[in-house]
Amino acid sequence: MAVQEVRAFNRFYTNLIGALDYSKHLYTPYTLTESRVLYELAHATRTDAADLRAELSLDAGYLSRLLTKFERDGLVGRAPSEQDARRQRITLTRQGREAAALLDERSRDAVGSLLDRVEPARRPQLTDAMRTVRDILQDTPASIPGRGEPLLRDPVPGELGWIVQRHGAVYAAEYGWNTEFEGLVARIVADFAQHHDPRVERAWIAELDGRPVGSVMCVRDDATNATAEANVDTGTDTGRGTSRGTGTGADASGIRDETPGTARLRLLLVEPGARGHGLGQRLIGTVVDFARQAGYREVTLWTNDVLTTARALYERAGFTLVSERPHHSYGAELIGQDWTLPLREPAVPQEGTAP
Questions:
Q1: Would you give the DSSP letter of residue 237?
Q2: Which of 172, 177, 242, 271 has its CA 20 to 30 A from that of 310?
Q3: Residues in Cβ contact with 117 at an 8 Å cutoff, skipping those fewer than 6 apart
Q4: Is 211 exposed, middle or buried (0-12, 13-18, 19+ CB in 10 A)?
Q5: What are 240-260's pLDDT values in tens digits?
Q6: How many whole angstroms separate alpha carbon 301 and alpha carbon 218?
Q7: What's the pLDDT at 85?
């Protein structure tokens, strides 16, 4: 019951403050994460990149790309730290300070409008309740990432929905992708829930300190569907289509009995606050191990060039980039990429046979 109440509150408050479409909510060109970085730069006493990354629980690669964008737009300047030349000191330019001030003003106006909806006599009750929630969660050991060991397990009822919700929220915050992306993830998850073959297809949830913090799927990549849709992905591959062919050799239940050919890695996600535990590499490795044991000859995935951290994980796991092409999806100009990892050694032609 407690878990359901907390999740219900999170959904309610996220929608209430417009977190999933922050730029439109405050009439600014900045996403929620970009706005938080500008706020920290305007108010924090320490402005090294490493401090920003720790304070906001941001992936190093993502923060670097964000700061490069800010620098290109004339919002920040970067220089070696005076205390440690290996660290970068980040400062707001005049234009950056003006942008941060505008964001602060509009955020105050938005909160003021929200409080106007509350009777004056009840406002102290509201702020006391908010302070209580913050104080309790700050003092809870389980809320501190890294206190326990990450665990990979099967999803429990309700967690397939969590995969959809967190993909939508995280990629809106970090990349500004619109709700089309969340819709795609919802179709993929629904297809898996209704049709997956548990012998050769599986999903995993990464758990840390008793809460889900990541996900990944391994599904059969039907040849009939391999070119059905040039979709985009989450930081790993969401796959190339959400419809499923029946293939050949299906029994009356629709489950095929032929040896699987290509596995597709889908819906890799690690929550920003849980990064740094090696979970991304573990999730990828778990898919590869499962696919090898299931008899697949290769694992493939589809991702985008902007997801540099994820692409580095794929390379480390042995995947090779085989093709790429530009596309416009989720309100962004992207370059989609196909990656492949062979699981079986290619057959060697015997003497006297054609190669």
A1: -
A2: 242
A3: none
A4: middle
A5: 444 343 333 344 344 445 667
A6: 10
A7: 66
Residues facing 250 on adjacent strands: 256
Q: Is the pLDDT of residue 286 over 80?
A: yes
Strand blocks (E) in the chain: 76-80, 88-92, 151-153, 202-208, 211-220, 262-270, 298-304, 320-329, 332-342
Cβ atoms 234, 189 nearer than 8 A: no
Tokens of 326: 């530009």
The pTM is what?
0.55
Report whether 48 contacts 81 (CB < 8 A).
Answer: yes
- Greatest Cα-to-Cα distance within the chain, rounded to the nearest angstrom: 92
Least confident range from 7-11, 66-70, 172-176, 244-248: namely 244-248
d(CA 56, CA 174): 12
The encoded tokens of residue 213 equal 């913090």
Location of structure tokens 């402005």: 47
Q: What's the rounded mean pLDDT across residues 187-213?
A: 93
19-54: b (≥16 Cβ within 10 Å) or e: bbebbeebebebbbbbbbbbebbbeeeebbbebbbe
pLDDT score at 210: 81
Task: Tell how strand 332-342 and strand 211-220 pair up.
Answer: unpaired
- Is residue 164 within 8 Å of 266, Cβ to Cβ? no
- Residue 181, Cα to own-chain centre: how many angstroms? 11
Give the C-alpha separation, 70 to 80, whole Å: 17
Beta bridge partner(s), residue 334 = 327
DSSP per-residue codes, 250-291: B-TTS-B-SPP-EEEEEEEEE-GGGTTSSHHHHHHHHHHHHH
Question: Which 8-state DSSP code applies to residue 189?
Answer: H
Average model confidence (pLDDT) for the chain? Answer: 79
